[in-house]
Amino acid sequence: MVRKSDALATESVNCLNAALSHLRNIWEEIGIPEDQRMQRTEVVKKHIKGLLEMMIAEEENLRQRLKKSIIMCQKELHAVCQDLGLTACLVRVKTHHPSDLLRVCWREE
User: Which secondary structure element, helix H or strand E, spans residue 84, and what is its range?
Assistant: First the structure.
């Protein structure tokens, strides 16, 4: 079974190919020489590469913020458990999603 994200990625590549083909047709129709078409294609590539690099940086930043938030929450959970005299244990809950959920179990000390 094809994952939705893989199908969407394939669709994105198809859109990019279609757009590049459309641009090449326009450039050919209006008589832009091959060397200029190559230059323009390079500009397109730089724009797309820059956009993707910016999006990757944003997602990496989000991932780091989430990791820091998880660490802070775990520290807070530990502190609350100590205050209440409880022991917390994190248990993975299997789901159909690759990022399994964590469930907190409590035990009195």
Answer: helix 34-84
